[in-house]
Structure formats: structure tokens, C-alpha cells
Amino acid sequence: MREALFWTVLGMGAVTYLPRLLPLLAAERVTFPPYVLALLRNIPYAVLGALIFPGVLDVEPAPWAGLAGVGVAALLAWLRAPLLVVLFGAIAAALLAQGAA
Amino acid sequence: MRGLLIGLRAGVPIAVGYVPIAMAFGLLAGESGLTVVESAWMSAVVFAGASQFVGVQMWAAGAAAVHIVLTTFLVNLRHLLMSASLAARLRPPGGAAGERPGPLLPVVAFTLTDETFAVASLAAEGALGWTYLLGLHLMAYGSWVGGTVLGGAAGRLLPEALSASMDVALYAMFTGLLVPALRAMPGRARVPLVAAAANAVLQAAGWSQGWALVAATLAGALVGAVGAPKEAAPDA
User: Fold this and answer.
1) What is the SS3 string spanning A5-43?
2) What's the pTM?
3) What is the value of ipTM here, to two decimals?
4) In this complex, do B77 and A40 lie within 8 Å of one another by their Cβ atoms?
5) Which of A63, A96, B106, B145 has the most other CB atoms within 10 Å of its CB?
6) Cα distance from A39 to chain B (closest Cα, Å)?
7) Average pLDDT of span B22-33
8) Residues A66, A58: contact at Cβ < 8 Å?
9) Contact check, Cβ <8 Å, A54/B199
């Protein structure tokens, strides 16, 4: 294993563990102010949005392959397809988009 | 001991859901240049799906460790809520003498996820205890790490042409996580939209990918939190 990856993952693990551990360790009931709650609940949605765009435009060999893949993924996910179906549907769409070019 | 078995059984539906996602993670991590040992290491140490996909994507893009760790922290901060909620249920006010956690507490805390929390939250009042949680969490953890190894090993068998088109798969995965969540919570759509727009603007302005992601995430979460419609129940 590469040393840099080993330590990066250990850091990821440490910062993931603390929020899991500390409230359970705290003897008293932990309460958050409402605005902190609202912020915390939004973070997974926010990070996914930022990860998809504009990164999807960098998909090889061309932006429309990425956009086709993500479009099909969004449609399948909207129809409640299982995650693996979403994944392979998107790959198939990107392949087709490449082939059509 | 009985609690452990009940917990393990309660964890089976989670395992059924986790194995394919973990396999997809192992597969994608392999496509991003991680060895099977490296992706298994990440699944074993982090054990938090979305942040692992994020971490692999950032690692492959050459992001600095500090950005990867900071983003992971932000993505997984939500566990505070679930840990706090579990803590409140396990230590009933009035000081009723429940099961003592002892060395189980650090293990149970380490393996807490959105899904185990959802199942534990729905568990009958009498069933919920530390050994139950241990069984539930170990089932989820084992299936996640095992699925990662399976997916990483399967990746080696993929034909070259298919492998090349896997570039889009991570984005499909993010979309596949985001869309059902938004479908259940349509009022929140502006959160990822603002974050995506902020990310595009910051990267165009010359920010590094890592800091742009952190700032855009906070911007999206803040805009969503400010003036958010009142929500009665947490949606963990």
C-alpha cells in the first residue's frame, strides 16, 4: 500500500470516527441548535451537487458522454432503480454516446 | 448473546443493500488506481459510503490529503446527529439502569451508519441495547468490507473497452445517491444546485479543486439552511 494513501485514509477514518463517538460518549443528552441541525442535514446534498458539477464535464472523451451518463443515471434513479442498475445504465449511455459520435 | 443474534438478523437487509454498493465501490476504486488492499483499507477504516466515493475521486484527481480529510469530515459530520439520538435512547432520563456498554461503546460508535441508525431507530423499545447494536453493526460492517474486496477483485476481469468508459461511473453513483434523496425531499433541491454552481464559479476563478469543493459544500448547506422551511421531524 502506498504510504500517502495509508495516512490519508487514516485521517479520513479519524475525522469520521469522532462525530460518531463523541455524542455516545457524552453522558448528558446532546442537543444542537436548530440552525446547526439544518446545516448538518444539508451537507450530504451539497457535497454531492458540487461533486457532480462541473467535474462531469471532464469525463473522457467528451463532456456529452458524461452528461448522457448522468442524465440516464438521474432518470433511472428517479424511477427507483437499484444503484447498480443506475451505474451500468449510465455506463451504457456513455458508451452509446461515444459510439454515436 | 441473544441480543447479538437478534441484532445480526436485523442487519441482514442492510447487508443485502450494502454488498452491491460496496462492490461498486471496490470496482470504481480499482478503476481510479487503488489496489484491492487499498480500497479494503479505506472501507475498513472509514466505513462511510458517500465519503469513500468522494475520497477516491479526489485522490484520483490529485487532491491534497488535507482537502480529502476536510471534505470527509464535512460529509460525515451528520453522524453527530445519529450518535446523539442513539445516546439519548440508550441512556433514558430518570437513570434507569440499562445494559452497560463497556468496551462495546467504541466498537458500536465506529460502525454507526445512516442505515444502521435507521434500523436501530425502528427497533422495538425492548430490543435496543448494546449487544443488539453490536450484532446489527457487525453485519453491516462485514458486508461492506467483504463487498469491497469482491468488487475490487471483479474489476480485474473487466474488458479494456468497458473499463475505459468507467470514467462516468462515479458521477452516475453520485447522481444515484442524490436523486432519490431529493425525490424524498424536493424542497432541498437548491442545496446541491447552489453547491454545484458555487463549485463551478470558484474553480473558474482559479481555486484549487479541493478548496473549491469545501467552500461550495458549505455555501450550498448554508443557503439551504437559511430560510429553510420548518421541518418537523429529522430525516436521518
Assistant:
1) HHHHHHHHHHHHHHHHHHHHHCCCCCCCCHHHHHHHHHH
2) 0.74
3) 0.85
4) yes
5) B145
6) 5
7) 90
8) yes
9) yes
